[in-house]
Amino acid sequence: MDEIEIYECRLEDVDNFVGELKELWLCLAHEMYEIEHFIKPSETNSDRWIKFVQKGLASERSLLLVAKNKNRLVGFVFANASRDFPLDVSKFVGAVNDVYVLPQFRCKGIGKKLMVKCLNRMKALGMNVASLTVLMENKTAIKLYEKLGFKIHGYTMVKTL
């Protein structure tokens, strides 16, 4: 396999990668929808996600890292800082919102490279805690996050009404 490059996107880079980013997000959304039947994998939602990413990058409160194999995007991680907490806090928390690697590029260390660079950037931006949510069924991701030092902090419970 060719070398993977991890690249931090600026706001203007999103326009250059918009088609590939939307395709990757749709792949993520399809996989997630198979498990949790929540966020619908649609063109409309991929457009909304791109706008959300652009808004976050424009506000300098988000970061988007992409994994490139040759000239093709094969994965990404999107994270943001939660600075608008209405109460005084002792920690500056960053949230890893989305992590995705195309199936044919998994188990090659790409997700780890994305996460390590993301965590390093978060720390450099002043965040001292990183949080993320992962589906219980995603055992591979859970194992990676545990290796990177993440621990269970709470439980999200859901009830269909």
Largest pleated sheet: 5 strands, mixed
Helix content: 40-55%
Helix and strand element order: EHHEEEHEH
Kindly report how far apart the N and C termini lie. Answer: 47 Å
Task: Calculate Rg over CA atoms.
Answer: 16 Å
Q: pLDDT below 50 for ≥5 consecutive residues: which ranges?
A: none
Tell me what the CATH architecture is: 3-Layer(aba) Sandwich
Structural class by helix and strand composition: alpha+beta
Helix count, DSSP H or I runs of 4 or more residues: 4
Total number of strands? 5
CATH superfamily: Gcn5-related N-acetyltransferase (GNAT)
Task: Give the helix/strand layout.
Blueprint: E1 4-9, H1 11-36, H2 43-58, E2 62-69, E3 72-81, E4 93-101, H3 110-124, E5 129-132, H4 139-147
Parallel strand pairs: 4-5
Antiparallel strand pairs: 1-2, 2-3, 3-4
Helix pairs in contact: 1-2
Describe this protein's structure:
The protein is of the alpha+beta class. The protein has a single domain, classed as 3-Layer(aba) Sandwich (Aminopeptidase), CATH 3.40.630. The chain has helices at 11-36, 43-58, 110-124, 139-147, and strands at residues 4-9, 62-69, 72-81, 93-101, 129-132. It has a five-stranded mixed sheet with strand order 1-2-3-4-5, sandwiched between helices. Helix 3 (110-124) links the parallel strand 4 and strand 5 (129-132). The longest helix is centred in the N-terminal third of the chain and has 26 residues, at 11-36. The protein is globular, with a radius of gyration of 16 Å.
